[in-house]
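Field reference: sequence -> structure
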Amino acid sequence: MTLQNIFLLGAVASMGIFIQIIRFANKTVKIRKIWDSALESNRTFPNR
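Structure field:
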């Protein structure tokens, strides 16, 4: 019974870590997309 509880706790913890990693990856991808679009707009419409 205790082994099952430990396994369940481990699974829940690993899932939480996995979700955090996915959220971080999504944030970085969004930032990269915004950065790329900004660079594209700078190329097509130069400020100078």
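Note: The first helix runs from residue 2 to 44.
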